[in-house]
Design a protein that fits this description.
Elements lengths: L1 E14 L11 E15 L8 H7 L7 E10 L2 E10 L2 E3 L4 H13 L4 H8 L11 H11 L1
Helix pairs in contact: 2-3
Length: about 140
């Protein structure tokens, strides 16, 4: 199910002053910004999976905090859980991370104008190994 979150913008950055992560650059983050919108996909999960997702997002380490937002979907407004970085520092994404974000936007048929916005994001030009290599290898072997 497609959605858009009104009055927020997607930016890329790191938590606090951590300059290294598995993606070698900034990761997606949403910030309040009147007049902007973030497009994405709503995933349905059971409440019993919430602790696992919170752990994956680093809630227990204070990296992200969960946030309830109302998103507009084709089927009406839906209250959704998202995560916001607690100590956000702007940092460009690695090309590989941006590629994954763009691939997801294309796979889920997000609006072309929004995809073009993501494609226009400048990267940090990182060219070494990345998580994308692992994703590509597992996709090829399946």
């Amino acid at each position: 199910m497609h959605f858009f979150l009104q009055d927020y913008v997607m930016r890329f950055g790191l938590w606090a002053e951590h300059v290294t992560n598995q993606w070698h650059g900034g990761v997606a983050h949403i910030s309040f910004c009147p007049g902007e919108e973030v497009w994405g996909v709503v995933w349905s999960m059971s409440d019993e999976d919430r602790p696992s997702l919170d752990s994956q997002e680093g809630v227990d380490r204070g990296i992200y905090s969960p946030m309830e937002v109302n998103v507009e979907t084709d089927e009406g407004d839906v209250c959704c859980r998202t995560y916001q970085m607690t100590e956000f520092q702007v940092c460009p994404p690695a090309p590989q991370y941006k590629q994954v974000v763009c691939m997801g936007a294309k796979q889920h048929s997000l609006p072309v104008g929004y995809l073009k916005k993501i494609e226009a994001v400048e990267t940090n030009n990182y060219s070494g190994p990345s998580v994308l290599d692992q994703i590509s290898l597992s996709t090829v072997s399946n």
